[in-house]
Structures are given as structure tokens and as C-alpha cells.
Amino acid sequence: MEISSLMALSPLDGRYAKQTEVLRDIFSEFALMRARVTVEIEWIIALSEFKLPELKELSAENKEYLRSLVSNFSLSDCEDIKKIEATTNHDVKAVEYWIKGKMEKNAELAAASEFVHFGCTSEDINNTSHALMLSSGRQVICSYLQAITDKLKTFAHDWASVSMLSRTHGQHASPTTVGKEMANVAFRLERAINNIEKVHLLAKMNGAVGNFNAHYIAYPDKDWPAFAQDVITNKLNLEYNKYTIQIEPHDYMAQLFDAIVCANTILIDLDRDIWGYISLNYFKQQLKEGEVGSSTMPHKVNPIDFENSEGNLGMANAFLTFLAQKLPISRWQRDLTDSTVLRNMGVSFGYCVVGYTALTRGMGKLQLNEQAVSADLDNSWEVLAEAIQTVMRRYGVPHPYEQLKALTRGKGITPESLHEFIAKLDIPEDAKQNLQKLTPHTYIGIADVLAKEI
């Protein structure tokens, strides 16, 4: 029975179904089954090349046929596996039986069929499948993050020289530029993306408790660790983990999820900052025909994209943090709690994508209100107190900080009062002239240079 998305239990499959579509081919039940078929097929093909006395190398034609089971894997195939699972009550065993069923009508393949899943425990298939899924999922995450980073760099360059009042502790502070603030986030994100990309995706294929027990009882003269490593690294493009219990310990998953949490946290910080700047009228948002900001206040243009992003990235981080803390823990040689938890990887990544999509949409609507940004600076001459007291320090004027504190702290300062103060200073004339020329707009250090360099 086809169920309307309006009946979906999760917003990822309901309200946000369109946005998360990119992940369905990676983290769905269908995708997991296809990944399992991939691993089983590469294992049996590799075994046939391992010169086992009872298993001849499969012909090129039959290797191609087996791999076509992966490349042509369809929803109908997945449904057939689920029908087998209804009897076996075991999803990996159902995959094994399905593959054997596809081999039975070919004499060469039928003779090799008992070597499907040879020496494997279910977790040999599952852990490699999950690593393959995460490899694709990571690419999706990084592509969204890179697009956001690129947009921030564009902002940094476009607004590199637009002076802006800083706020530390919510109070007026030394000026910066709008572009430099965007560059700060772009730089943080670049490092976060690098940390996500450099996590090694590990996999194991070493049997029931990680010791190749079944492999060596059957073929004691074979180098099974080298064989397993070859399959994992050269056939599946993953990294081999030599020391495991029944499960791959999932430490790399914790690293990966923590790295994504770090990137998401940077974006939550950005969401909140832009939200605040919109509130200050530093940014306006492009209007969309027919869109409503408030059900009762027609004047409002709410920063909903940034709020949506913040909320969904918070959801993503909650899931990812739980996964990172739970998955590396398994009782003795294994328990099954990781199995049900791992089914939520797609949920975690789904909330990431919804958050990234909302932020990207919001950034696309931003219009800098330079007039408002400039007006704030024009009314904040007290921020030059830092500059003046620093020059006073250079020339040995006594108690410079205290003098400026008495002049400016908690008070409205005018250009005239500052210039009068500067004129009385016992410092060289050229230093006085430089301070007299200074304005909140020009006191930006090398903010514009740094913004342009990102």
C-alpha cells in the first residue's frame, strides 16, 4: 500500500522528503541491501581467485554476471530478499540465499554457490556495507559544506572593505569588516571539511570473533589476513582493521560523526550570528512573492531559513553525538545494540542535509544594508578608545588605559570630544594627526586584506 508523505512519521520522509532525496540511494533499506550484495559478490569472486582446491576461478563472463547483480540491483530484487527474510528472520542470510538463487541455473556458478558467505559472520558483511554507505554519505555532506564555504568566500570578497561595528559580550567593540567576519567562518569550515575527509573508513572480514577461526580450520595453509585485507582495500576501497571482535569497533564512525558535529556547530554559530545581524537590520532578505512572515503581523520578514537550519542541525548533532558515544561500546565480543542504532545513520545525515539546505537558501536571500551598518559605526566613536590608548602607551603617556576609561566607559562619545582629548596629549605631532584622521570606519586593521585573502 502506498502511503502519502502526509502520513510520514518522520519529517525527513514527509515535509522534507524532497530535500533528503539525495540520501535515499545511500542510507535506505534498499541501499543497505545493495551494499550487502556488493560485499558478498566481491568476496565470492575474490575467493575464486584465491586458488582454493575445491573452488575454480570463475570465468570472466560469470564474474561480470555476478557484478551485474549489483549494478542492476532493483527495488524488485530488494523486495525478493525481504520475502526470503520473512522466512529466515535474518536479513544477511536472506541476501546469501538470494545470491545463491541467482547462481543455481549456471553450472559453474552453481558449483561455487556454497562459497557464498564462506567463512563470514553477518557482521563481516554489515560492517563493510556500512563503511561503503558512509563513504558515499560523506561525499554528500562535504559537497554541501563546500558549497556553503564557497558562498561565504564570495561574501568575504564582496564585502571585504565594508566596515562594521564588532560586538563582544554584546557590547560595542573595535570595528571589523563584514567580509572578514564571513572569512572567519569560511576558514573554520575548510578545516572542518578536511577533518571529515581525512577519517579512515575501516572494515573487517575476519570471521565470528575476529580470529579467522573458520577460515583456518578449512584451509590452514592460506594467508587469510592478507586475503581479507586485499578484498577490503583493493576491491572495496576501504581500510583494513586487523584487530576486532565480532564487530568492527566503530571507533572510526565516532571520529567521523564527531567531525560532522564540529562542522554543524560552526554553522549553528553562523545561523545565530546572521539571525542577529538581520535583527540589527545589517541584512535585508529578498522577498518571495506570496510568502507570509507572520500570521498576524504582515510587515514581518522573519529569518526562518536560519532558524530552520539551526533547529535541524541541532537535531543532526543530537543523533550524531549519540551514535558517536554509543557505537564504540559493545558487550564482550558483541551485542546487537549497534545493529538497530546504525539504521539511523540516514536520519542523522538527513537532518544535516535539511539544515544545510535551509542555510544555503537563507544565504541566497541576504542583501547587505550598508546604510544601517555605516550608521552604527557613525554613532560609536567610543570604539576608538583602544587605538588612542595604544598610541599613548607607545609614547609613555602615564595611565593611558585609565584616562580613556574615564573618558569613554558607559558614555556617549562625540568626534569633537575625542579630538579635544587627542589635542591635549603629549605625543609627537604626526601621531596626533594620524589619530585625528581616524574614524570608526577606518579603524579596521587589516580586516579587508584578510577577507580578500581567503
UniProtKB/TrEMBL annotation:
Sample GO molecular function, one term:
(S)-2-(5-amino-1-(5-phospho-D-ribosyl)imidazole-4-carboxamido) succinate lyase (fumarate-forming) activity
Pathway assigned to this chain's UniProt record:
Purine metabolism; IMP biosynthesis via de novo pathway; 5-amino-1-(5-phospho-D-ribosyl)imidazole-4-carboxamide from 5-amino-1-(5-phospho-D-ribosyl)imidazole-4-carboxylate: step 2/2; Purine metabolism; AMP biosynthesis via de novo pathway; AMP from IMP: step 2/2
* Keyword hit for Secreted: no
Q: What EC number(s) does this enzyme carry? A: 4.3.2.2
Q: Which NCBIfam families match?
A: PRK09285.1, purB
Function statement: Catalyzes two reactions in de novo purine nucleotide biosynthesis. Catalyzes the breakdown of 5-aminoimidazole- (N-succinylocarboxamide) ribotide (SAICAR or 2-[5-amino-1-(5-phospho-beta-D-ribosyl)imidazole-4-carboxamido]succinate) to 5-aminoimidazole-4-carboxamide ribotide (AICAR or 5-amino-1-(5-phospho-beta-D-ribosyl)imidazole-4-carboxamide) and fumarate, and of adenylosuccinate (ADS or N(6)-(1,2-dicarboxyethyl)-AMP) to adenosine monophosphate (AMP) and fumarate.
What is this protein's record name?
Adenylosuccinate lyase
